[in-house]
Design brief:
The protein has four helices and no strands. The protein has about 110 residues and is mainly alpha-helical. The longest helix is centred in the middle third of the chain and has 21 residues.
Length: about 110
């Protein structure tokens, strides 16, 4: 469920980035479908997550992505904070009590 949400979030973010860069974007119908799919994936996490932090972080990230898709966020770097919070919460939900390695993954081995 987390991977599905991330896949759709990535598509929405790419569409929002293309919009903010003035490049070609998917048609309104396609973008609307992506945002609908994003909210469905968010609802799946809301129903299945073991922790409230993951539920909240998923909602906040989806909300910011939907704002970006509607053109309400000009700088997609505003998505980084909610994205990091989502990833941290997802990790904590899947592997409670384990610490996530910090820093460059290539040097954390």
């Amino acid at each position: 469920m987390v991977l599905k949400f991330l896949s759709i979030a990535s598509q929405v973010e790419k569409a929002a980035l293309a919009r903010s860069d003035g490049g070609g974007t998917p048609g309104n119908a396609e973008l609307g479908r992506l945002v609908d799919d994003l909210w469905l994936a968010q609802a799946e996490i809301d129903l299945a997550a073991r922790s409230e932090p993951l539920r909240g972080a998923t909602y906040r990230y989806a909300f910011r992505l939907a704002e970006a898709a509607r053109g309400e966020i000009a700088d997609v770097s505003a998505l980084r904070g909610p994205q990091v919070q989502f990833m941290d919460a997802a990790y904590d939900d899947m592997w409670p009590g384990q610490r996530r390695a910090a820093g460059d993954p290539a040097t954390s081995q």
